[in-house]
Amino acid sequence: EYLFIDIKDKLYNQNIEIYNIDNKYKTFFKYLDVIETKKYIDILQKNLIHNDDNVENILRHLNLSSIIYRYLFPDYFNRSINNYWDGDKNNMNISELDIFLENTLEKISVNFDAKFNLDFVKIINKNINNTSLFKNINCIINNLADKESFIVYYKKALKSRLLNGHVKDIYNENILLNIFINNNNLLDVSRMLVMLTDYQNSLIYSNEYNALFNNNNFINLTTYDMWNITKNNYENELQCSIFKDSMNLMKNDFKTYYKINNEWKNIDFVDNISTCLIDFNNIELECNYLQADLLYLFNETEIIDLDKYKISLPLLESLIKPKIIK
After folding, report:
1. Are 80 and 93 in contact (CB under 8 A)?
2. Which of 1, 82, 142, 324 has its CA 20 to 30 A from that of 269?
3. How far apart are CA 90 and CA 95, in angstroms?
């Protein structure tokens, strides 16, 4: 009780990071005076504006503002106003809460530039498994001066997560993309939905393929012209016949399996973004194909004659610097 009374006093003095009480708001409400609602709303606005340089703070303040607004103005919270917006937002139904939040953000939207968009995407990446943080995300998106760069940055981040297997919860990814899809101000979102569908299908195909061929591979099936991937095949650059043969066997086995139900589709492997796990000196390493190929040569000899093999200096340095080879 004393904690929340103290918080209330600090709130009056506008000397508190409001989002710290986000998860305790139900208790906090016991110490709010409804007759002084305007004072609280003014404080919320000033806290939002004061933290205009921190995207995560803005998101948390937006969420808490909506919670307190709903508590202080229950009769207005879900009331919609028709034709509130002009131009491309005309004929939209929008709640008074949305108007309050967007009007507040409009005062600081001058700071929502390309750098802000990049920070915005980084916060999304960091909190991708905390989708509750994004329930008012469209209020920020609607005030972005450069929505195109936001989508470019987000697509790159999504692509990186999907290609590197950093997707912990595909459900959360879908939630966020559907928020974007429902925002009429964003373009090119449908391509990201295709990317997410590709990833989900890849999980199914990879599991079936591994069960049939007793492997432990993940094959990321990407729809042509949707991922902006530049293909580079290492077929002629691999030096170790053992590694080269094992890669070709894996590729041919998967093609055979995949074409059974997809006769009309072609499949090409993209070596330059592929990786593999190898056991080297009892250490499991994730390497690109060229690194793995070089390490496989050490299965045949302890010393590699550089005059015999065409090995690039950057490739050598990539394994010498972390002291994997000498």
Report:
1. yes
2. 324
3. 14
